[in-house]
Amino acid sequence: MPSRTRRQTRQARAHQIKELSPRLPPEIWREVFQYLSEEPKKWLASVSTICKTINPEVEAVLYRSVVIKKCVRVGAPFCRSVVRRPHRAVAVRELDIQVHGFASLVDPLTRALKVVTNLKTLTLIGDEPLLCILLDVPFQLQKLNLGCEESYTPDFVEDILARQPTIRELGLYFRMRTYGFLLCGNKTPAEKEDKFTLSRTDILPHLRILNVMVNFFPLSRITHAYNVTHLSFGKAHRDDVAHALQLFGGQLVALKITRCIDASCTDAYFWPTSVFSSTHRLPRLQYLEIQDDSEFDVDLYPVDITIPPKETFPSIKSFMWLPSVHKDVMDYLDHPDSDSDEDEDEDSPSLASYASALFKTWPTLENFALCDFFELGPRWLEAPGQPPEPGESIGVRDKTGVVSRGFKRDENGGIVGPVEMEYAQEGWRRYTSS
């Protein structure tokens, strides 16, 4: 019997390995790598070089979500890679591009966006030439965050939105000029006033979630309510709240307000419900979140509690407050009688009295949570499940440093609290009505 050649021996061994190796379907490999995608992407990129068989499945995970921020060295190679390898292009579902002043990226990105046909989520914040690309793309988005680094809003933004009728979530981050100044706290003289408005009624038929920073894009520039049920707007003053509630109030299910607290605010503005008036009506609202954004040298102190009547929130279920006040003020609210005279104890405002007033005024309210970012000591990091020591606040710290505590209504209609509560980030966006 003739001896085997080296080539025959290698083929025989490869056949044996092939017979003994489990042949997993591509979908299983992709699930495995998706599970491992929480690891650093450099590690996952190394895995893609191990075997040609699993390379497409690894790259499907690597290219699913791509971030390009202020770096042409990342943007241009990405554009070339998806153009050259179609399986990478069809894997892209989320793309986050935030660049400024890179004209050389326009052509590569134009070619790349022609082939990422399965793209569903896009963040594009850059110069006007980059935004122009969106006037002719093959994909239909579900989520779009759009903004311009330049100090005006391009007049073709509504044309972009008209070409994306499937959008359900929209974020607007334009730096608008008005009254001769740039609306972002920077008093730079403007060449002309930005008069852009979002007013076309034939666009965004499926829009449900809207996120706006009003110091960049004033809500007054939106004149049509569309079908928005979930709204978040930041850097808001009273007039911003009034316009938003007048325009969207009748249809909102979830609302987040980041209210601006500056030197013009008085102590009457301390409690979060002070942004509303008794004439506001939000008949469908079930989730309310108010986050405070205070200037560095502005401190408000609690005064008489004022809460809008039940007619304002007839369906409210969850209310969350993220205050921005000095730690001493929060300690006082947790324990108002610790440093006060006996004659003042009964009238001292506190979190407990505020929660009691909320539950009494709003009969549908199920829970009220308060979250802050102040350090409560290492015990919160080491053993968050242990009962608090006498004099300590009750709370749960999550990985971002947020401490949450609150009150809830029990089955008999009574109020329980303060108790540990969990803070769900982006809860306003994910809230579903019941």
Describe this structure in words.
With 434 residues, this protein is an alpha/beta fold. The chain has helices spanning 6-20, 26-36, 41-47, 55-62, 72-84, 86-91, 106-113, 128-132, 157-162, 238-248, 327-334, 342-345, 351-361, 379-382, 427-430; strands at 65-69, 94-98, 121-126, 143-148, 169-174, 177-178, 181-182, 209-213, 230-236, 254-261, 287-294, 318-322, 367-372, 396-397, 403-409, 415-420. The strands form two sheets. Strands 1, 2, 3, 4, 5, 8, 9, 10, 11, 12, 13, 14, 15 and 16 form a 14-stranded mixed β-sheet that branches. A two-stranded antiparallel sheet has the order 6-7. Helix 3 (41-47) runs antiparallel to helix 4 (55-62) and helix 5 (72-84) packs parallel to helix 7 (106-113). The longest helix has 15 residues, at 6-20. The termini are far apart. 31% of the residues are buried. Residues 16-21, 177-192, 340-345 and 374-401 have low confidence and may be disordered.
List keywords for this structure.
single chain; 434 residues; alpha/beta; 14-stranded mixed β-sheet; two-stranded antiparallel sheet; 15 helices; globular
Brief summary of the model shown:
With 434 residues, the protein is α/β, with parallel strands linked by helices.
Q: How does the SSE layout of this entry go?
A:
Layout: H1 6-20, H2 26-36, H3 41-47, H4 55-62, E1 65-69, H5 72-84, H6 86-91, E2 94-98, H7 106-113, E3 121-126, H8 128-132, E4 143-148, H9 157-162, E5 169-174, E6 177-178, E7 181-182, E8 209-213, E9 230-236, H10 238-248, E10 254-261, E11 287-294, E12 318-322, H11 327-334, H12 342-345, H13 351-361, E13 367-372, H14 379-382, E14 396-397, E15 403-409, E16 415-420, H15 427-430
Parallel strand pairs: 1-2, 2-3, 3-4, 4-5, 5-8, 8-9, 9-10, 10-11, 11-12, 12-13
Antiparallel strand pairs: 6-7, 13-15, 14-15, 15-16
Helix pairs in contact: 2-4, 3-4, 5-7
